[in-house]
Design goal:
Chain A: InterPro entries: BFD-like_2Fe2S-bd_dom, BFD-like_2Fe2S-bd_dom_sf, FAD/NAD-bd_sf, FAD/NAD-binding_dom, Metab_Enz_Cyan_OpOx_G3PDH, Opine_Oxase_asu/HCN_bsu. The complex is a heterodimer of chains A (481) and B (376). Chain A has 481 residues and is α/β, with parallel strands linked by helices. Chain A has three domains: 207 residues, FAD/NAD(P)-binding domain; 145 residues, FAD/NAD(P)-binding domain; 57 residues, Orthogonal Bundle (Arc Repressor Mutant, subunit A), CATH 1.10.10.1100. Chain A has 14 helices and 23 strands. A five-stranded parallel beta sheet of chain A has the order 3-2-1-7-20. In chain A, strand 2, helix 2 and strand 3 form a beta-alpha-beta unit. Chain A starts with 6 loop residues before the first strand and ends in a 10-residue tail after the last helix. With 376 residues, chain B is α/β, with parallel strands linked by helices. Chain B has two domains: 193 residues, FAD/NAD(P)-binding domain (3-Layer(bba) Sandwich), CATH 3.50.50; 153 residues, D-Amino Acid Oxidase, subunit A, domain 2 (D-Amino Acid Oxidase, Chain A, domain 2). Helix content of chain B is 31%, strand content 27%. In chain B, the strands form four sheets. Chain B has an eight-stranded mixed beta sheet. Strand 23 of chain A pairs antiparallel with strand 17 of chain B, so a sheet runs across the interface.
């Protein structure tokens, strides 16, 4: 019986992907959940490796009960065979079967319209091809980190990296830490580090209270989120973390590794106020400037983007028939929003793959939650911002692209005397963004220093693929109907 | 004079015109190298040209690139590495040898390489190839760097981000300059170096020029120690270049770069300006490259890029004054060879602009040679 159900490939097993998987599986769809992690959960519900014997991993997570519900739901579906969970599968591209190109899925529900190509980790030397009738992208986000003098010193880590270490390995990255940048991620990182025993000297946030007051209406729409913020504030107080709002890091110092950072207050023009510089000794600096959506796979499928995010409709459908997107890839908004979007996307996919329409999304609770949380995250995104003139603080000698060791001076020369006017030309002239990370680490920084828009670059494959695999891809049989 | 198009060909026109004593304004609606130049591999090839006018232009260009390399070689990553064309079958080798003989008669240096010698030139080549020909004059530059540095060395006034909306003509029909979205740029001569968009610029002057796009993909691998020493490609590449077929054609051109990655290129498709990622094309390139160099099986592709090569129906560029519009010159439609042919094209345009006799006969490149077809 179950062999006759349509197959939905869900890419990403974080909050959005899990919610989508459960919603679709509950409505008669077979789901292949594909994820690069060794366990479900994604970045938000990142789990410690079992061998570590963590006794209270929930101490580092909030919404632990939600996670337990998702985990139990997934286990049930794995047991009844409705869901297949492929771990350690690194998707490098999704191929649209040309025979169904341009055709709405519901007109030909028998056609397995997509092939997902994934490399098997951790070696990533072998590949598999997974056929599906629909694809749901829940690929999440990656960290935005802006450069400053000294940011390449050992001891400087990304905020998300510090958090991943805490959640995944339960190790303490250092003993005396400063958390800096901008965005809601800095709060759990600071409290998480403190709870794990580090002395958190300061939380340096470039946004200030007035940035939030100005957006109080959209923020007041989500009192639970505000309460969550208040909870962090209490914990910061308890751990004696000095919160420096409207401050920024000017420079990280050290010879072999990080020894201290200089921070300064920001004036009304967004530039450091003279005479406010303060040197803080520390051995760890966790820095982050927000998150950016992962859109490579969507872009490769030809899905339309809105700025940096995948464009979706009320049902979380992209403009490519048979492709849905949910969670941070459609706009960064946090785990609760991702859960709501994933749920709606899973419902829509199940209905559409069966040739019907989902219940009007507007009436469901998930749709209301989505509306409310989107307004909230837009308010947050407007409030949390790096200093307006941060790029001025990046000295010519500062390396902005670490893979290719390109300095800010080289970027400025490309713009100044070589006639580059956009990020692509800067990249071609300097090699900034051409290295192993393909610009994910440095794109925002290079664009800021160059003074041009950070246009996401086409960069398929989504991860490096051996030529031999490209030349002779594995071909699995299409799923039976 | 005004040069429209700040790609490789426009930059070379600016450089040679400035060195001939002209004041040059280089205008482009995008940045420097924002079109086909930024999506190319930087091939400076004589090996892929059949005897004829394009080969003469390639030989002139190769000489000029060698001269420019004296001052700008490092900045533009000039590498006179030579090309190695290989044939997999005895028949293919016979055809290649015939082509090489004709090229030799036209002044190309060619060195026959028999099967046993191939691996001393390229130790990682696949076994079992029939033989090949070495072309010492083939070379490489990094095309975006080359365009940017030639433009800067020309001293031309660079007007990027400025769109030409009309070619201005006087009562007598002669060119007076160009109108842009940010004011007029007046000059008695305008050079159309707009590459793939050369037909549009010609139309702004009121004349047809049937430039069409041909899509090409290039694969870029992870950085490696130098294992591919020459530009290596299969002999069928020559046939593809001259082809009129709209269908996908791929012959692997494999080469190492100064920066480390190996470039694999030369797919050719006539699909209009379609920017979507094409898996079959990328697969065909990968298959061709791994056939030539089996070690590439385990080497990872970091990214792919695509560009649109401008071509004219007879696969020769439009080069020289346009007899239909006094003061209008064309230097566009170089297909996949624009980086290599840029120096010669720039030099010939400068010679034509200053009233001298160009050192090559421009008749085969006449911009109005398609006029009758276009109006028919």
């Amino acid at each position: 019986m179950s062999e006759r159900r349509p197959v939905l490939a869900v890419i990403g097993a974080g909050p959005a992907g899990l919610a989508a998987t459960l919603a679709a599986a509950a409505r008669g769809v077979r789901v292949t959940l594909i994820d690069s992690g060794t366990q479900a959960g994604g970045q938000f519900y990142r789990q410690p490796a079992p061998g570590l014997g963590a006794r209270r991993p929930q101490a580092l997570h909030h919404q632990w009960r939600t996670w337990e519900r998702l985990r139990t739901g997934l286990d049930t579906r794995l047991a009844d065979g409705r869901v297949t969970h492929l771990t350690d599968h690194h998707v490098c591209w999704v191929e649209r079967d040309s025979s169904v190109e341009g055709e709405p899925v519901r007109d030909d529900p028998a056609a397995p319209g997509f092939t997902v190509h994934a490399l098997l980790g951790p070696e990533q030397r072998e590949s598999v091809a997974i056929r599906a009738h629909g694809v749901l992208l829940a690929t999440g986000a990656y960290e935005k980190v802006l450069p400053f003098p000294g940011w390449t010193l050992p001891g400087v880590v990304t905020a998300g990296g510090a958090q991943a270490l805490l959640k995944g390995g339960l190790t303490l990255p250092g003993r005396t830490a400063v958390v800096a940048g901008t965005g809601p991620l800095l709060l759990p990182v600071a409290t998480g580090l403190a709870a794990a025993g580090a002395r958190v000297v300061a939380l340096v946030e470039s946004a200030g209270p007035r940035d939030f007051v100005r957006r109080s209406r959209s923020l007041a729409g989500a009192p639970d989120k505000l309460a969550e913020g208040a909870g962090y504030a209490a914990r910061l107080l308890r751990h004696r973390v000095s919160v420096k709002a409207r401050h920024t890091v000017l420079e990280a110092h050290g010879v072999e590794r990080l020894e201290s950072v200089t921070v300064a207050a920001l004036g009304p023009d967004g530039r450091p106020r003279p005479g406010t510089a303060l040197r803080l000794p520390c051995d760890t600096l966790a820095v982050g400037h927000g998150l950016l959506p992962h859109t490579d796979l969507a872009d490769g499928l030809g899905c339309r983007l809105d700025g940096p995010a995948v464009r979706v409709d009320d049902e979380q459908r992209t403009d490519v028939p048979g492709v849905w997107a949910a969670g941070e890839s459609t706009g960064v908004g946090g785990a609760a929003l991702s859960l709501a979007e994933g749920h709606l996307a899973g419902r829509s996919a199940a209905a559409r793959l069966h040739g019907t329409a989902p219940d009007p999304a507007r009436r469901t609770r998930a749709a209301r939650t989505r509306t409310r949380l989107r307004a909230f995250s837009e308010g947050l995104a407007g409030a949390f911002a790096p200093p307006a003139h941060w790029a001025e603080l990046v000295t010519d000698e500062t390396v902005v692209c670490r893979c290719e060791e390109v300095t800010a001076g080289a970027v400025r020369e490309a713009v100044g005397s070589l006639g580059a006017g956009d990020l692509r030309t800067v990249k071609l002239l300097t090699r900034a963004g051409m290295g192993w990370c393909q610009g994910r680490m440095c794109e925002s920084g290079v664009a800021g220093v160059a003074g041009c828009a950070a246009t996401p670059a086409r960069r398929l494959p989504a991860r490096p693929v051996p030529l031999g695999m490209l030349a002779a891809p594995t071909d699995d049989p299409p799923p039976a109907r | 004079m005004v040069v429209v198009g700040a790609g490789m060909v426009g930059a070379a026109c600016a450089l040679y015109a400035a060195r001939a004593g002209l004041d040059v304004i280089l205008v482009d609606r995008g940045p420097v190298a924002g079109g086909t130049t930024g999506a190319g591999e930087g091939n400076l090839l004589v090996s892929d040209k059949e005897p004829g006018p394009e080969l003469h232009l390639a030989l002139l260009s190769a000489r000029l690139w060698g001269e420019l390399a004296q001052e700008l070689g490092t900045a533009v990553e000039y590498e006179p590495k030579g090309g190695l064309v290989v044939a997999s079958t005895p028949d293919g080798l016979t055809a290649l040898a015939r082509l090489a003989a004709g090229q030799r008669a036209a002044g190309v240096r060619t060195v026959p390489v028999d099967a046993s010698e191939l691996r001393s030139l390229e130790p990682h080549l696949a076994p079992g190839l029939a033989g090949g020909v070495l072309y010492p004059q083939d070379a490489q530059v990094m095309p975006t760097l080359a365009a940017a540095h030639l433009a800067r060395a020309s001293g031309a006034r660079l007007e990027t981000g400025r769109t030409v909306t009309r070619v201005l003509r006087g009562a007598d029909g002669a060119v007076r300059g160009v109108r842009t979205d940010r004011g007029d740029l007046l000059a008695p001569a305008v050079v159309n170096a707009a590459g793939t968009w050369g037909g549009e610029v010609a139309a702004l002057a009121g004349v047809p020029l049937p430039v069409l796009p041909r899509r090409g993909f290039v694969l870029v691998t992870e950085p490696l120690p130098r294992r591919v020493r020459h530009k290596v490609y299969a002999a069928d590449y020559v046939a593809d270049v001259a082809s009129d077929s709209a269908a996908l054609q791929t012959s692997p051109v494999v080469e190492g770069t100064a920066a480390g990655p190996v470039l694999i290129g030369a797919s050719r498709e006539r699909v209009g300006f379609d920017r979507s990622f094409s898996l079959p094309v990328v697969r065909a390139l990968a298959a061709g490259a791994t056939r030539l160099f089996p070690f590439l099986d385990d080497v990872r592709v970091m990214r792919t890029y695509l560009g649109f090569r401008p071509y004219l129906p007879d696969h020769l560029p439009a080069l020289g004054p346009d007899p239909r519009v006094p003061g209008l010159f064309h230097a566009c439609g170089h297909e996949g060879a624009g980086i290599g042919l840029a120096t010669g094209s720039g030099q010939l345009i400068a010679q034509a602009l200053t009233g001298g006799t160009p050192e090559l006969d421009l008749t085969p490149f006449r911009p109005d040679r398609f006029a009758e077809e276009a109006t028919a």
